[in-house]
Amino acid sequence: MPRSAIINVMVQAAMKAGRSLARDFGEVQNLQVSLKGPGDYVSQADRRAEEIIHTELSRARPGYSFLMEERGAVDGDDPQHRWLVDPLDGTTNFLHGIPIFSVSIALERQGTLVAGVIYNPAMDELYTAERGGGAFLNDRRMRVAARRELTDCVIGTGIPHLGRGHHGRALLDLRNVMGEAAGIRRLGSAALDLAYVAAGRMDGFWEDALSPWDMAAGILMVREAGGFATDRNGGQDMLDSGSVVAGNELIHRSLLKTLQKPVS
Ligand code: 2AM
Ligand code: CA
User: Fold this and answer.
1) Which of 210, 211, 256 is nearest to 229 (CA)?
2) Which protein residues have their CB within 5 A of the ion that is ligand 2?
3) 12, 187, 221, 248: which has the fewest Cβ within 10 Å?
């Protein structure tokens, strides 16, 4: 399956940053035993990856705007196009030597998500999607899973930690979904969670208090794999509200319903 020019640009940036992260990840594993821990080293790895992506994308498409996790918003001459970049999604995993982290790059054209690339360098898994062109894991086409009942489903989520998100709400949601699903998974990288839904590995996913760069590429991936992604109210305000719910048509609908329930 030949890739389009824009996907090629994004893949090149994501894989170059991913290789840099993979080298740093090797060092992080060695630093676990040091008293200070790998914290500073990880911040540098994150910034290095972002620098690589910024350089690659600016060179290939001069003038496009950016929204990046570390730099924030950088306006270019071309306000129609905007990159949404998370150079290291799953930072806590990376810091602890757990090989579940990713680079996530999305492209918006006039406010519409048109392309997404997610790369997990530790597993060398590359996920790509282009609006209207389908979604791929490496070179294999992805489809969301076809399960129809929540009781058969493995559902991913994110659990807020110290100082982040609404803990009471998260516990309530968890309690409601765990009572209806076959299993809950918590990977620690929202970009990969959404990619896993697109790949049919998980049947659904929900999380709140996310940032736009965590989910933009993954949302397009789920849609291009035949799935649905909305905010928890069923609307399209995911990037601004930080809430996302994803799955095939039926599981997405069941999840929305379950997430509205009070605790019985
Ligand atoms: P990060 O690894 O880039 O921080 C984990 O549930 C998911 O939430 C990850 O994708 C993580 O991205 C994201 N997240 C968003 N905002 C966060 C924050 N302030 N602290 C920790 N994780 C955050
Ligand atoms: Ca992130």
Assistant:
1) 256
2) 86, 89, 214
3) 12
Atom of ligand 1 nearest to the CA of 207: 6
Q: How far is CA 45 from the centre of its chain?
A: 19
Which run of H or E residues covers position 135?
A: strand 134-137
Residue 138 burial (10 A CB sphere; 0-12, 13-18, 19+): exposed
Task: Quote the ligand 2 centre to 148 CA distance (angstroms).
Answer: 30
Considering the domain boundaries, does residue 264 fall inside one? no
Q: Going along 93-169, which residue ranges are E strands? A: 102-109, 112-120, 125-130, 134-137, 140-141, 154-157
User: Are 154 and 191 spatial neighbours (Cβ–Cβ below 8 Å)?
Assistant: no
- Residue 62 lies in domain: 5-141
Atom of ligand 1 nearest to the CA of 213: 3
For residue 143, report the distance from its CA to the centre of ligand 2, in Å. Answer: 24
pLDDT, tens digit (0-9, with 9 covering 90-100), for 53-87? 999 999 999 999 999 998 999 999 998 999 999 99
The crossing angle, in degrees rounded to 10, of helices 212-224 and 190-198 is: 0
Co-location of 20 and 132 in the same domain: yes
Q: Which residues line ligand 1 (CB under 6 A)?
A: 86, 89-91, 158, 164, 188-190, 207, 210-211, 214
